[in-house]
Amino acid sequence: PLVTTGELVTQAAAEHSAVAAFNIITLEHVEAVVAGAESAEAPVVLQVSENAVKFRYGRLLPLARAAVVAAERASVPVALHLDHVQSDDLLRQAADAGFSSVMYDAARLPYDQNLAGTRAAVDWAHAQGLWIEAELGQVGGKSGEPPLDAHAPGARTDPAAARAFVCDSGVNALAVAIGSTHAMTTRTATLDHDLLKRLSASLDVPLVLHGSSGVPDHELAAAVAGGIAKVNVGTALNIAMTGAIRDFLAAHPEAVDSRKYLSVGREAMMRAVTGIIRTVGRPAA
Ligand code: G3H
Ligand code: ZN
């Protein structure tokens, strides 16, 4: 069934586990994430990023409608989240398109501008009954962004600043920069667990890990134990899908039916989803 992101994250945080949130781009992503969650017998979040909307000719609804129907028919709880939103126009489409939550992304801006933009987004979101996540400190590595120096001060979330930011903005959850980077194609990130512990102690909202594709299983498990309640994964699905399709086409150069290779790609994504949920999540009650 279709449920809200707020309830899944709250439940995960209460159980010291995390809900996995996967970025969907194609219908195959939608089907693979739902099937992977059903196979793990655990709840999941389907998230659509602003970049994915741009890829879909700027239209949110076709993919959103598919995700809503897939969620309604799933045997496990599934929520819809609008991810990395910078555009006010897109933000305002969230509720009508079936999303129960949004991530408002102004982390690239100086603190005061991030806070002001986030606070306005929170006011609007809460008036709509939406759960809202924002980011302080920069995870970096998003497509279209200049590369970030992983050791620059802005590349980590400061606990005292985070406490003030959450308090002054009213966000429901905070994405924190603790060493992960978006779009990594190797699982070699090491997280700053000491910083995570301090963030967790300073904040009373659930914490979100972005760029989780580059984080190895043992680091993910430790992050969840340290207070991460939502784990965002995108690139890992593209690695699985593209790798499987590349291998299939190399072995079958005569193939023309797109279903043949899309089903192989979908299978590979589904296995990746199940594996990540087993690492960070819990069985559905
Ligand atoms: O918000 C989406 C995630 O942070 C995805 O990051 O593609 O590096 O897994 P990733
Ligand atoms: Zn992200």
TrEMBL record:
Binding-site positions, Zn(2+) 1: 84, 182, 210
Species whose genome carries this gene: Streptomyces guryensis
Binding site for Zn(2+) 2: 105, 135
SUPFAM superfamilies: Aldolase (SSF51569)
Cofactor(s) named in the record: Zn(2+)
Stated name of the protein: Class II fructose-bisphosphate aldolase family protein
TM regions (residue ranges): none
Keyword Zinc listed: yes
Pfam families membership: F_bP_aldolase (PF01116)
Record-linked InterPro entries: Aldolase_TIM, Class_II_FBP_aldolase, FBA_II
UniProt entry keywords in alphabetical sequence: Metal-binding, Zinc
